[in-house]
Amino acid sequence: MRKRALIAGMLLATVVFFAIIGFGVKSSDSDRTNELVLLHVIIRHGARTPVDTYPKDPYINESFYPVGWGQLTNKGKLELYNMGKFLRKRYDKFLGPHYTPDIFYAQATDVDRTKASLQMINAGLWPPQIEQKWGPLDWQPVPVHSEPLSEDSLLLVRRPCANYHLELDRVLKLPEIRKKFEENDELFRELSEKTGKSVKNFDDVQDIYNTLKAEDDFNLTLPDWTKDYYPERLTPPTAFSFVLNTYTDKLIRLKGGVLLKKLVTDWTDKVKGTLRPAQRKAFLYGGHDSTITNLLRALDVGDPQIPDYGTMILLEFSQDYITNTFGVEIYLRNSTGEPHKLKIRDCIEFCPLFHVKRLRYDVIPDNWDKECKSYDPNYTPPPPRGP
């Protein structure tokens, strides 16, 4: 009996221990032992009109009046506004009712649809309170920052990086990648014939997929030939295009690792009390499908996917007030519905900061500019693809 009681006591102690450090699933806020201290939200822009086309596209001369090419649709604007309301509901207590630039910072790529997306989210997230109302609109301006595309070093990483392209060239010669190309060679040829566009690789397939999706979402009737390709046959090679561009740790390090480094730096500064401004509670970043996939690859969470419009990554950095441990919980929300939790490989769902740094050390660049320099001084990297 004493032995059974001892074993039962040990089991109970183990359950309590794992619940405290975060292994247990919290059933409600009252059960939580950690307090949110910093939030990062990374989103893909909302639903848009097509950015690109192909020679045989029946809508090649479409103006998409009045918004134009590559701009948010009304459907996209409404969904983004509701995303802001979702964030307000989820983080109302943490953020507080009043917007101030010290508490909240928003940054997008230097592209109309990403900057407009954050404006729509901010409209839902930060409705003006009594002191902030200024006139007939129940709205207040919230700045959205950006850096020129040619200098983007965070959300798209479009600055020239020779070593990234040299590594990608090496990857393209790997036997398993060459086999992938061979398996899709017939698809490339068929798409070239159907579209009039020279389809040579997986990025070209992604371009066609994106055009057809945008036209379909805009309620345009797609050509008959697309029924045999879109979305089923085009989905796997399009998803693989994102994997291929981050196929090795070195490729991840020079793409998604840049944003991950910013997150880790913010978390570390928050722990040290050196984050400026000290009142900062949240960052909102607006990017593209590759922004989402590159970060997910850098974090080593989730399966390969094609991020839909408005896909959102929520990174909740918290302090466990029982163990005094700081860590992050990661959620993915596919534009609507409830977010689902992701887990960094080989870590628990509440992944302590020191484990994040240890587990993802290989994909966080130390000096990105230095690491991008080529050993071949005559090598010129190809121009970046359009966002």
UniProtKB/TrEMBL annotation:
GO terms for molecular function: acid phosphatase activity; phosphatase activity. Belongs to the histidine acid phosphatase family. This is Venom acid phosphatase Acph-1-like Protein. PROSITE patterns: HIS_ACID_PHOSPHAT_1 (PS00616). PANTHER family: ACID PHOSPHATASE-RELATED (PTHR11567), GH28721P-RELATED (PTHR11567:SF205). It catalyses: a phosphate monoester + H2O = an alcohol + phosphate. It holds the Pfam family His_Phos_2. It comes from the Eukaryota. InterPro entries: Acid_Pase_AS, His_Pase_clade-2, His_PPase_superfam, Histidine_acid_phosphatase. It comes from Tribolium castaneum.
